[in-house]
Amino acid sequence: MHMIATRKLGATDIEVTELSFGGAPLGAVGDRITDDQASAIMHRAREGGIRYFDTAPLYGHGLSEKRLGRVLRELPRDDFVLSTKVGRLLVPESEGERFEGMRDAEPVAIRYDYSFDAVRRSLEASLERLGLDRVDVLLCHDIDIWTHGDAQPGIFQAAKNGALPALAELREQGVVRAIGLGVNEWRVCSQVMDLMQVDCFLLAGRFTLLEQEPLAEFLPQCREHRVSIIIGGPYNSGILATDERRFATYDYKPAPEHLWQRAQAIRRMCESHGVDPRAAALQYPLRHPAVAAVIPGVRAIDEMETNLDLFATEIPDALWRDLADAELARAID
Fold first, then answer.
1. Looking at residue 237, what is its pLDDT?
2. CB neighbour list of residue 230: distance below 8 Å, 6 or more residues apart
3. E strands of the chain, at which residues?
4. I need a labelling partner for 80 at 20 to 30 A (CA). Which of 21, 52, 105, 135 fits?
5. Is residue 1 predicted with pLDDT exceeding 70?
6. β-bridge partners, 240
7. Which residues are catalytic?
8. 201 has which bridge partners?
9. What pLDDT, in 10s, does the model give residues 98-146?
10. pLDDT score for 255
C-alpha cells in the first residue's frame, strides 16, 4: 500500500489525498467497461494510496455512484473521503432530458433543480445508489455560465435562494462535513465566496499547466477565506495528455490551434528536462497552497497505473523555472 500525502479541505478536519479519483468516466463510459472492470480500477486506486473519491448523479445518469458504491461500501467508512453533487435530479425518462456524452443505459433522465428541497432529495437518492449512509463533501453542481449560458443568472439566483442555504443547513446539522461548488469556471466560485462560508470548490480545467488565470485574484481570495480548491481535469480534458493533434481535446471539444501550439511548447520544455508532460500537469496545480487535490478521471486500469507513476515522478525545480521564464506556465512561489 503506497502513501500519498494529504491536505486539509479548507478549515475542516477532512484530509484528502493530493492525488484523488475523478469518478465521471466510470459512469460516462457505460457498458464499454464492465462493473467488475470498474471495481478493479477503484481497487487499484486504493492500493495506490488514493483516499478521496468524487462522483455525481450526472455521471452515467447514476451509474458512477453505483459503481463507486459497490467498492466503497466494503471498506471501513472512515478510510475514505467521498464527494457527490446536487442540482440535477434523476427522473423517469419522460420527465427529463438525457445528457449527451454519457454512454450508459440507465433508464433515467436529468432534471435541473436547484431548490432547497431538491438538495435533500438528491442526496438521499445518491446515498441509495451508493449504498452508504453518508457522504463527506456535498457540492452544488454546474451553476456556471459554461453550463447554462444565458440562463445562468436565473440558475444562480435559484441556487442562492435554495440549494446553497440547503447545503449550509446540512453542514450545520452534521449530515455532511463540507460544502461547496463543482463547476467549470472560477468567477461563480468567487461570487459564492462573497455570499457564504464554503469549504471547497471542485474546479475543472481552469487552473492547470495550460491556463493560470485564477492565480491573480481568485486563488488569493481562496486563501483569505480558507477555502480549498480541488482540481478536476488537470489535463484540460486531454490536450495536455496527447501528442497527436487529432486526439487533442480542450473542454471536451476539439482543441483550438493556439492552445495546441502552447501545449506542444509545454511538452517540448518538459521533455528537455526528461519529464513526461503529464507528470508536470498532475503536479503543477499542487504547487499552490490553495489547492488540496488533483482528481484526474480514469476509465481503464492502465490509466490508473500511469497516473500513480506520473504523480510519483520527481520534477526538477529547473523545469518550473524554465516554464515560467518562457511564459508557458506562471511561477508559483
1. 83
2. 9, 16, 20, 54, 83, 200, 201, 202, 203, 291, 292, 293, 294, 295
3. 6-8, 15-17, 21-22, 52-54, 81-86, 88-92, 108-112, 137-141, 178-183, 200-204, 228-232, 249-250, 253-254, 291-295
4. 105
5. no
6. none
7. 54, 59, 85
8. 181, 229
9. 999 899 999 999 999 999 999 999 999 999 999 999 999 999 999 999 9
10. 93
